[in-house]
């Protein structure tokens, strides 16, 4: 098992265990043969059904037997049963799988079987006219949410339980409000904010709540910044928090927010000068500033990024190469901060080259894009290293030096924006 | 023929220390007789019904003085279990280990402390003791959160030899927090008095850090809070639980009988009890400090081995303490109960509804936090409600304690009035009662009592032996050829310890007594031999081989 | 604890797997048998010992798992067909260059029948959906040379919807990023030549942050490391050409330290150093996950693994299916 520590056993204990094991194997194989032969002969009887119960209690991962069990229900048992009887059968199925889930919370097949049960709940107990056509379904799904709550109480990160929770929420005949679910994630986060699963759930809920206007976007967003800021200051080593913060910042279109959050993180870094995540995030957000708001920048951002990237290489050597690449691609030359651009047109493209450093920005008109891979420029040749699509990396060889060029398609103008830097 | 009066060991006194030792020795196979002059278990740690408490106060009690009380009656007096030694049990530590390893935990119920608050300028504030508390707290500024967390991480980790500690080991703890971790006054107060439970501002940093680390690492074992309190008055009930385990192991119990005489004729003691027909004899006598049996020389005091991380590095403290007990009939507004009431009823969820109001809490008054209060010591108020089975429905017991470091001496400080000392604290606490539409105005307790607890004077039997007495103690041999039979006594506990430490201190003392007894009675016991005593508690019966293998 | 790869032990361990019939766990994992054989065979290929299992025996066993009713393979004779075991069967047959023993049109029909209107694939007729199954379908169709029969747009569209802001992918729309799902989605996109749908800087960042101080990789933020996750993360990094973004030496020594020599279970690999190897993992993934990691990491003496298809690189190259992944330079045996 995952996480089970090794313990040495005495030879006697091993031998005794072996004997017990032999009889268990014989029993198990006989049961398996029995079930599979009944299945092969198309036996949809109650007896066969009971046999699958025994089998699955021993081995809940035997997917073929789960399939067989559902087929027995569908072909052998449901057809002769009333809605009430079907309902009772499904109740039993669900309590059997509840027991199984407590023991095996990560077995796919058990979760699948519950899904199947819930999707096969008959109409009732009343008729449409009586208004409680969904009565059974409603109580099942309500109860199911409670079961998921319990599963997430036992393991707040259970990777099966979270998507299942979303599935339950989406399937309930009477939908639970998204604000109630948001409050649930708040509780989960308050009890342990390393629970990224809960933060993730929050990103989905908030996107929806902001989109449909049920939450005031700017007010709610500020509250999120406050929440995540509290977590950040409480434990700056927790990744969950920083990843969520990055989601909250989005594309960085709001310069005011970018500036403010950069200041918040800088203040935290001043207090906790060895925080890798502060530095990493500062680099990311400052680069975002460079990229999104190049017109109104003070000149030193690129240098600050470079300084932080150098610190990061020391502090977090495992990811050193990544920091080096960020530095190399578009910061070493600091071209984004350059204001002294020289313009020239070449091959139908507008080229801006900085006078003080070697940085170049090239805008390629849309009609030139098919030529991109073959595009010759001055005496050098651009070689495509990346793949097609909307992003790519080109390398230029020539004149004894190599440069990195990152091309990005500007969605608005349809032109290629090419970032160039020497290595 | 078996001599029914012949024992390996006779233990005098059923305080927590003696009771734990009795259970361990009985389980180790020694024949034990356990005697108490009181008709109840627990001695100075007993849990008493209301009437028993009144009776106890009306009888001279060495180490206690200056009793005052508001009345002699209360409704349903028998439903109260009032503790003479109110304290908390850390979720990890010697006492909880003893409770679990001995099986005594199964006899008793326990309740988690729901809330710890600190009193700050007329209001109570929750004490942030964990990452989650810090995260949720809306009153602490972001930078302070970072500083607080940095300190808590430091205190929960291996701080020995760390730069932040070196050279500051002896610095007063609050001062240390301020200068090294840049914490503000409010947080210093919360940490020093409500997380580390310092008694006074002069406590040195190192022992306070050791204590704090144990508490921090206790959190999460049974719930968010690191501390438990036992049902039925905690310490007394727990002592009784250990006695019960000792009895299951074959120990004989005689309560309500005092020692008339002890005669030492090597190699055995003969103990005669008042109103008890037959004398008892034993090879080893263990007497609690409250017993000074006539006819035998002073016992050899037994102290646990010194350790930096011992729960009571301040063991040498002889501060007297002013104590108060009050019974109230309205809940205190210390914030919401931390116990989650299940949102949706279901067959899986417990059906019994939990009491809605806060049932267990600790309120700490740092020095100088209250006009008219002490500037040199922290006062604590322990609140226990019906959930602890120690009082009837709708009632709560408040236990107040204020150490008196300015009168650091043995004996009763004659000039101190515990009621005057504690009144401001009680009033401040009562002012926190939840508003009640039917009975507006300040809350009046149904009953209150105040008294002093102090180290016994030298004339009292249980005073700590002085250095020369210790040295001379083991050798008053009347007969050089036959040394007198062994006589041990656990060293007395200080009158006041940090709220979570009294039980752990008793458990450590008991362990020391246990090993001293084993060494005396089985001097040749080979540690590796079959059936040798290798631990304080024999391993619990293993459950059958795991069927899921 | 060994710091060197115990190749011979691993080989004999895999050879003996089929003989562990006196172990209850062997029987309890019959539902994984075909997958286990694929993993074992691939491991042997990586170690340069494809001959260690009898080719004809294995192929016959594969054939015995055929589910005639469904038109796919089950994990074991008389077990129901499932997309996952069907891929294992195909991979084994491809490895042995024995595709002529397969009714390709029927298998392709089975696989395509599992695609849902949303574009995602189900595992079997009962309809559990997961991006894992999408990858499996694409991998299988590609190996069979039938990728042209797939509705690629619909398929890619679903994968796109599983992409999260952190660059990673979940097992269905709305699900949290998880390194296993990241691997399957990235590999699926690589086979479809649609890596442009990956935000490789963001995903590279997320993947690189999976490495913990002990060198191992975890599957999600704030979780423990594990050899399996190490493999998924490393494969994804390799496809994105970003293996250098983590500390490969530390990862290598983490993986080697997870190798245990213990009683009769010598050669087993635990999920993390010091843990008991568990049957499920040993049978299925761990052994190979570890070897695959080491192969991608350029460990000496191993054969290249194709991280996209999770098969020996040479076989994929010969079929002309190689995508633009990059492993580390293979080091020489000292």
TrEMBL record, chain A:
<keyword id="KW-0677">Repeat</keyword>
<comment type="function">
    <text>Catalyzes the transfer of a geranyl-geranyl moiety from geranyl-geranyl pyrophosphate to cysteines occuring in specific C-terminal amino acid sequences.</text>
</comment>
<keyword id="KW-0637">Prenyltransferase</keyword>
<dbReference type="GO" id="GO:0004663">
    <property type="term" value="F:Rab geranylgeranyltransferase activity"/>
</dbReference>
<dbReference type="Pfam" id="PF01239">
    <property type="entry name" value="PPTA"/>
</dbReference>
<dbReference type="GO" id="GO:0097354">
    <property type="term" value="P:prenylation"/>
</dbReference>
<comment type="similarity">
    <text>Belongs to the protein prenyltransferase subunit alpha family.</text>
</comment>
<dbReference type="GO" id="GO:0005968">
    <property type="term" value="C:Rab-protein geranylgeranyltransferase complex"/>
</dbReference>
<keyword id="KW-0808">Transferase</keyword>
<dbReference type="InterPro" id="IPR002088">
    <property type="entry name" value="Prenyl_trans_a"/>
</dbReference>
<protein>
    <recommendedName>
        <fullName>Geranylgeranyl transferase type-2 subunit alpha</fullName>
        <ecNumber>2.5.1.60</ecNumber>
    </recommendedName>
</protein>
Automatic annotation (TrEMBL), chain B:
<dbReference type="Pfam" id="PF00996">
    <property type="entry name" value="GDI"/>
</dbReference>
<feature type="region of interest" description="Disordered">
    <location>
        <begin position="455"/>
        <end position="493"/>
    </location>
</feature>
<feature type="compositionally biased region" description="Pro residues">
    <location>
        <begin position="482"/>
        <end position="493"/>
    </location>
</feature>
<protein>
    <submittedName>
        <fullName>GDP dissociation inhibitor-domain-containing protein</fullName>
    </submittedName>
</protein>
<dbReference type="GO" id="GO:0005634">
    <property type="term" value="C:nucleus"/>
</dbReference>
<dbReference type="GO" id="GO:0007264">
    <property type="term" value="P:small GTPase-mediated signal transduction"/>
</dbReference>
<dbReference type="GO" id="GO:0005092">
    <property type="term" value="F:GDP-dissociation inhibitor activity"/>
</dbReference>
<comment type="similarity">
    <text>Belongs to the Rab GDI family.</text>
</comment>
<dbReference type="InterPro" id="IPR018203">
    <property type="entry name" value="GDP_dissociation_inhibitor"/>
</dbReference>
<feature type="compositionally biased region" description="Basic and acidic residues">
    <location>
        <begin position="457"/>
        <end position="472"/>
    </location>
</feature>
<dbReference type="InterPro" id="IPR036188">
    <property type="entry name" value="FAD/NAD-bd_sf"/>
</dbReference>
<dbReference type="GO" id="GO:0016192">
    <property type="term" value="P:vesicle-mediated transport"/>
</dbReference>
<dbReference type="GO" id="GO:0005829">
    <property type="term" value="C:cytosol"/>
</dbReference>
<feature type="region of interest" description="Disordered">
    <location>
        <begin position="524"/>
        <end position="549"/>
    </location>
</feature>
<dbReference type="GO" id="GO:0005968">
    <property type="term" value="C:Rab-protein geranylgeranyltransferase complex"/>
</dbReference>
TrEMBL record, chain C:
<comment type="function">
    <text>Catalyzes the transfer of a geranylgeranyl moiety from geranylgeranyl diphosphate to both cysteines of proteins with the C-terminal sequence -XXCC, -XCXC and -CCXX.</text>
</comment>
<keyword id="KW-0479">Metal-binding</keyword>
<dbReference type="InterPro" id="IPR008930">
    <property type="entry name" value="Terpenoid_cyclase/PrenylTrfase"/>
</dbReference>
<protein>
    <recommendedName>
        <fullName>Geranylgeranyl transferase type-2 subunit beta</fullName>
        <ecNumber>2.5.1.60</ecNumber>
    </recommendedName>
</protein>
<dbReference type="InterPro" id="IPR045089">
    <property type="entry name" value="PGGT1B-like"/>
</dbReference>
<dbReference type="InterPro" id="IPR001330">
    <property type="entry name" value="Prenyltrans"/>
</dbReference>
<comment type="subunit">
    <text>Heterodimer of an alpha and a beta subunit.</text>
</comment>
<comment type="similarity">
    <text>Belongs to the protein prenyltransferase subunit beta family.</text>
</comment>
<dbReference type="GO" id="GO:0004663">
    <property type="term" value="F:Rab geranylgeranyltransferase activity"/>
</dbReference>
<dbReference type="InterPro" id="IPR026873">
    <property type="entry name" value="Ptb1"/>
</dbReference>
<keyword id="KW-0862">Zinc</keyword>
<dbReference type="GO" id="GO:0072657">
    <property type="term" value="P:protein localization to membrane"/>
</dbReference>
<dbReference type="Pfam" id="PF00432">
    <property type="entry name" value="Prenyltrans"/>
</dbReference>
<keyword id="KW-0677">Repeat</keyword>
<dbReference type="GO" id="GO:0005968">
    <property type="term" value="C:Rab-protein geranylgeranyltransferase complex"/>
</dbReference>
């Amino acid at each position: 098992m995952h996480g089970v520590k090794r313990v040495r056993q005495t030879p006697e204990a091993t031998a005794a265990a072996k004997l017990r094991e032999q009889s268990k194997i014989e029993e198990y194989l006989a049961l398996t043969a029995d079930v599979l032969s009944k299945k092969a002969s198309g036996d949809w009887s109650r007896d066969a059904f009971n046999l699958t119960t025994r089998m699955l209690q021993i081995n809940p991962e035997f997917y073929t037997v789960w399939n067989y069990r559902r087929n027995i229900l569908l072909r052998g048992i449901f057809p002769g049963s009333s809605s009430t009887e079907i309902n009772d059968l499904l109740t039993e199925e669900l309590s059997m799988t509840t027991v199984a889930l407590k023991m095996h919370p990560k077995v796919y097949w058990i979760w699948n079987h519950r899904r199947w049960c819930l999707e096969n709940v008959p109409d009732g107990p009343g008729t449409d006219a009586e208004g409680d056509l969904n009565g059974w379904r409603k109580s099942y799904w309500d109860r199911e949410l409670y079961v998921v709550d319990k599963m997430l109480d036992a393991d707040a990160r259970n990777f099966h339980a979270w998507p299942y929770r979303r599935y339950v929420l989406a399937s309930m005949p009477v939908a639970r409000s998204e604000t109630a679910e948001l409050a649930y994630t708040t509780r989960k986060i308050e009890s342990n904010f390393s629970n990224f699963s809960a933060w993730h759930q929050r990103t989905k809920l908030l996107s929806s709540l902001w989109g449909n206007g049920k939450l005031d976007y700017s007010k709610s967003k500020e509250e999120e910044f406050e929440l995540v800021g509290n977590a950040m200051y409480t434990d700056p080593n927790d990744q969950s928090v920083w990843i969520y913060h990055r989601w909250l910042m989005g594309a960085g279109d709001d310069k005011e927010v970018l500036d403010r959050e950069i200041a918040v993180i800088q203040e935290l870094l001043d207090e906790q000068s060895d925080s890798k995540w502060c530095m990493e995030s500062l680099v990311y957000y400052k680069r975002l500033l460079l990229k999104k708001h190049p017109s109104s920048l003070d000149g030193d951002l690129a240098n600050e990024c470079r300084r932080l990237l150098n610190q990061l290489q020391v502090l977090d050597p495992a990811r050193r190469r990544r920091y080096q690449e960020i530095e190399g691609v578009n910061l070493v030359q600091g071209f984004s901060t350059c204001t002294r651009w020289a313009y020239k047109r070449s091959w139908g493209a507008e080229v801006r080259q900085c006078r003080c450093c070697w940085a170049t920005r090239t805008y390629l008109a849309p009609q030139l894009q098919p030529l991109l891979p073959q595009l010759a420029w001055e005496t050098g040749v651009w070689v495509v290293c990346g793949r097609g699509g909307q992003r790519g990396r080109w390398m230029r060889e020539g004149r004894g030096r190599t440069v990195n060029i990152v091309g990005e398609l500007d969605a608005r103008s349809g032109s290629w924006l090419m970032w160039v830097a020497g290595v | 023929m078996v001599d029914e009066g012949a024992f390996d060991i006779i233990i005098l006194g059923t305080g927590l220390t003696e009771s734990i030792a009795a259970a361990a020795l009985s389980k180790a196979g020694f024949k034990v007789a356990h005697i108490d002059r009181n008709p109840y278990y627990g001695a100075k740690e007993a849990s008493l019904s209301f009437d028993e408490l009144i009776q106890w106060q009306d009888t001279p009690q060495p180490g206690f003085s200056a009793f005052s009380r508001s009345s002699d009656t209360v409704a349903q007096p028998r439903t109260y279990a009032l503790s003479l030694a109110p304290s908390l049990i850390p979720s990890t530590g010697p006492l909880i280990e003893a409770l679990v390893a001995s099986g005594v935990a199964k006899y008793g119920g326990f309740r988690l402390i729901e809330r710890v608050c600190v009193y700050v300028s007329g209001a109570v504030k929750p004490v942030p003791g964990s990452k989650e508390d810090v995260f949720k707290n809306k009153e602490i500024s972001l930078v302070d959160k970072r500083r607080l967390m940095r300190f808590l991480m430091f205190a929960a980790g291996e701080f020995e030899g760390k730069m932040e500690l070196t050279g500051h080991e002896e610095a007063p703890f609050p001062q240390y927090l301020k200068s090294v971790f840049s914490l503000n006054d409010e947080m210093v107060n919360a940490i020093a008095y409500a997380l580390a439970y310092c008694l006074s501002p002069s406590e040195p940093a190192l022992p306070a850090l050791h204590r704090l680390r144990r508490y921090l690492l206790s959190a999460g074992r049974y719930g968010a809070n690191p501390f438990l309190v036992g049902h039925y008055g905690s310490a007394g009930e727990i002592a009784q639980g250990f006695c019960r385990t000792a009895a299951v192991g074959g120990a004989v119990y005689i309560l309500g009988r005092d020692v008339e005489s002890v005669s030492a004729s090597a190699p055995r003691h003969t103990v005669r009890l008042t109103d008890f027909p037959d004398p008892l004899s034993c090879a080893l006598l263990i007497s609690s400090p409250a017993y000074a049996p006539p006819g035998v020389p002073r016992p050899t005091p037994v102290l646990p081995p010194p350790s930096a991380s011992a729960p009571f590095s301040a063991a040498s403290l002889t501060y007297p303490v002013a104590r108060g007990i009050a019974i109230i009939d309205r809940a205190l507004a210390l914030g919401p109960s931390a116990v989650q009431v299940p949102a949706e009823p279901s067959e899986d969820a417990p059906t019994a509804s939990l009491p809605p109001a806060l049932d267990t809490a600790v309120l700490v008054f740092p020095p100088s936090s209250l006009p008219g209060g002490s500037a040199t010591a922290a006062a604590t108020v322990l609140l226990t409600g019906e959930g602890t089975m120690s009082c009837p429905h709708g009632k709560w017991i408040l236990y107040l304690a204020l150490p008196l470091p300015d009168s650091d001496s043995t004996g009763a400080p004659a000039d101190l009035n515990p009621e005057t000392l504690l009144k401001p604290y009680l009033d401040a606490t009562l002012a926190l009662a939840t508003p009640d539409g039917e009975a507006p105005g300040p809350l009046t307790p149904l009953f209150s009592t105040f008294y002093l607890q102090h180290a016994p004077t030298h004339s009292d039997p249980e005073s700590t032996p002085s250095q020369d007495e210790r040295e001379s103690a083991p050798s008053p041999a009347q007969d050089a050829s036959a040394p007198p039979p062994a006589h041990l006594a656990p060293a007395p506990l200080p009158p006041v310890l940090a709220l979570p430490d009294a039980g752990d201190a008793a458990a450590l003392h008991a362990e020391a007594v246990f090993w001293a007894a084993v060494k005396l009675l089985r001097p040749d016991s080979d540690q590796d031999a079959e059936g040798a005593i290798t631990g304080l508690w024999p391993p619990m019966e293993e459950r059958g081989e795991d069927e899921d293998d | 604890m060994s710091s060197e790869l115990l190749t011979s032990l691993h080989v004999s361990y895999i050879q003996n797997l089929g003989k562990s019939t006196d172990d209850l766990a062997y029987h309890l994992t019959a539902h994984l048998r075909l997958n286990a054989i694929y993993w074992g065979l691939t491991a042997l290929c990586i170690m340069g010992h494809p001959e260690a299992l009898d080719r004809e025996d294995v192929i016959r066993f594969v054939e015995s798992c055929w589910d005639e009713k469904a038109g796919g393979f089950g994990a074991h004779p008389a077990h129901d067909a499932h997309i996952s075991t069907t891929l294992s069967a195909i991979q084994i047959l491809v490895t042995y260059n024995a595709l002529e023993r397969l009714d390709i049109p029927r298998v392709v029909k089975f696989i395509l029948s599992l695609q849902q209107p949303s574009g995602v694939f189900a595992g079997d007729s009962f309809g559990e959906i997961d991006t894992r199954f999408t990858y499996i379908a694409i991998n299988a169709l590609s190996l069979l040379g039938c990728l042209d029969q797939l509705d690629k747009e619909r398929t890619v569209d679903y994968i796109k919807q599983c992409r999260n802001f952190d660059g990673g992918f979940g097992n269905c729309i709305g699900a949290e990023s998880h390194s296993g799902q990241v691997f399957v989605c990235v590999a699926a996109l690589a086979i479809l030549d649609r890596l442009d749908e990956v935000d490789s800087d963001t995903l590279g960042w997320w993947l690189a942050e999976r490495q913990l101080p002990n060198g191992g990789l975890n599957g999600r933020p704030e979780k423990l490391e594990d050899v399996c996750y190490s493999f998924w993360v490393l494969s994804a990094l390799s496809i994105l050409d970003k293996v250098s973004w983590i500390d490969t030496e530390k990862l290598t020594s983490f993986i080697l330290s997870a190798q245990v020599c213990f009683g009769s279970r010598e050669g087993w690999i635990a999920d993390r150093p010091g843990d008991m190897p568990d049957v499920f993992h040993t049978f299925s993934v761990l052994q190979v996950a570890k070897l695959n990691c080491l192969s991608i990491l350029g460990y000496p003496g191993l054969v290249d693994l194709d991280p996209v298809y999770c098969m020996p690189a040479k076989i994929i190259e010969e079929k002309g299916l190689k995508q633009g992944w990059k492993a580390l330079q293979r080091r020489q045996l000292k």
